[in-house]
From TrEMBL:
Source organism (scientific name): Comamonas antarctica
UniProt cross-references to SUPFAM superfamilies, sorted A to Z: YjgF-like
Cellular component GO terms, alphabetical: cytosol
InterPro entries named among the record's database cross-references: RutC-like_sf, YjgF/YER057c/UK114, YjgH-like
GO molecular function, one term: deaminase activity
Pfam families hit by this protein: Ribonuc_L-PSP (PF01042)
Matches recorded under PANTHER family: 2-IMINOBUTANOATE/2-IMINOPROPANOATE DEAMINASE RIDA, RUTC FAMILY PROTEIN YJGH
Name of the protein in question: RidA family protein
Length: 134
């Protein structure tokens, strides 16, 4: 069995252990980040949608940073949105705060009916920094 090279952001390991998944795994020069939601430290959803989206990006950035990456290293993004017709405009006005400049990563958007009490989730694949890069 292959040993997974898991990345944990500071202060959230108990949350991931309780829910039995890894926040991110390094493999073959890539970082595979599990879906990040706008969860508070205790795992509960941030109730207001705009704050929830911002917190999801902050949680994502904490995982990326723990692996030595930034959002600029992200190659592929998948977002999951409950009721995308109602929430897309609200969510998409926040995205530029975190997205950076073109060229943008590849994107897949998925409308879902349930996200464990959340309205938005983002998962990414990023390229890990090359050895020796600071």
């Amino acid at each position: 069995m292959t040993q997974r090279d898991v990345v944990f952001p500071p202060g959230r390991q108990a949350l991931y252990e309780r829910n039995r998944y890894s926040p991110a795994v390094r493999a073959n020069g890539l970082l595979f980040v599990s879906g990040q939601v706008g969860s508070r430290e205790d795992g509960s959803p941030e109730p207001e949608l705009e704050a929830q989206v911002r917190l999801a990006f902050c949680n994502l950035n904490a995982v990326l940073q723990a692996a030595g990456c930034t959002f600029a290293d992200v190659l592929d993004v998948t977002v999951f949105v409950v009721d995308p017709e109602a929430h897309f405009e609200t969510i998409w006005k926040i995205v530029p705060e975190f997205w950076g400049q073109a060229p943008y990563p590849a994107l897949t958007g998925v409308g879902v009916t349930w996200l464990y009490g959340f309205q938005f989730e983002i998962k990414v694949i990023a390229k890990l920094p090359e050895a020796g890069r600071a």
